[in-house]
Amino acid sequence: MQKLVRTLALAALIVLGIWVWRILFPSPEHVIRSLVGNVAETVSFNAKDGNISKAYKVSKLQDFFTVDVEIAVDAPGYPPHTFTGRDEITQALLAAHSRLNGLKVEFLDVNVKVGPDKQTATANLTAQANFNGERDFSIQELNFLLKKIEGKWKIYRIETVKTLSSLPSAIQANPVEA
Amino acid sequence: MATDSNHSRFPRWLRILTIGRNPRLTLIRIAVLIGLVFLMRELVLIPIRIVGPSMMPTYQERGINFVNRLAYLRAEPQRGDVVAIRYAGEHRMLMKRILALPGETIEFRNGQVFINDKPLPEPYLAKDYPSTWTIPPQQMGPDRYYVVGDNRTMPERQHVKGAAARERIVGKVLLCKNLFAPSPSRR
What we know:
CATH architecture of the largest domain in chain B: Ribbon
CATH topology of the largest domain in chain B: Umud Fragment, subunit A
Oligomer: heterodimer
CATH superfamily of the largest domain in chain B: Umud Fragment, subunit A
Largest sheet of chain B: 7 strands, antiparallel
Number of domains of chain B: 2
Helix content of chain B: 10-25%
Radius of gyration of chain B: 23 Å
CATH class of the largest domain in chain B: Mainly Beta
Strand content of chain A: 25-35%
Distance between the termini of chain A: 58 Å
Radius of gyration of chain A: 20 Å
Largest interface: A-B, 23 and 25 residues
Strand order of the largest sheet of chain A: 2-1-6-5-4-3
Number of helices of chain B: 3
């Protein structure tokens, strides 16, 4: 019995150690997943949010991107459009705040691939957006391209992925060419 | 003593009905059942809830169905199969019907589908869901399947369709009709 308790205590200690280690020294994958989750949280808003909260979110969003960030949107039913630079993205988010009563963005199935140089990475994910608190939602597969600047991961490009395409996905989204 | 008082409080038949004759065995059974359900969910059948009108009227919105992961373990997807296609992962998937196989050329002419220039009979389409789609010929690559929904009354540009890579096809939709589907409504 005592042996069992000791074994269990040792196992618990090992699990605790691994947990603490991961908190203190997170892997790049973990950091990027967390960053992507923060982007979703920052972009989302609801009608009850005050102006200060909205302004804070808009300013916070800039921290996630490089100055020359590009967001290339090519979704079915809409003409392709590219947003360039943090200012244009900020303007787009402000416009969304004024036009919509609410927006809830979730990034699901985040697959992170870090480049061999450990300075670039790609996050392939499924974005789900609910507008104005409605039950229906829009879905779009996206690629986030990131690079490390002064020790911090920043998004330098977001592009839509054509899930149904005659081209191989490797050609569509060549990720880590910084 | 506590057990005795429990015995007096709950009738024997109620105890047997809720926790069985042997509680330890019941616990083991529950654990095995949970394990089996988890394995089934991960390896065999994925439960899905249908959202969106693109497969109507074959599959009503908000119905429940399952995706059979093992369907294409030994055989390749066939024309007419309704399949689940993953996005970045399996938390959200597309549900579509396969029309063209790898290497084939597909074309829509005023609603009629042509495969390698021959008209494709589609008995599964509802007659009160007419289509006028015209899409130029498109040849499938070596591991590409052309997929589309059954609801072709929708504007063609709003309907998600195209060539799905084999690796994205997660499995075949198990049931011909949804479970717990609401009454049919036209959109």
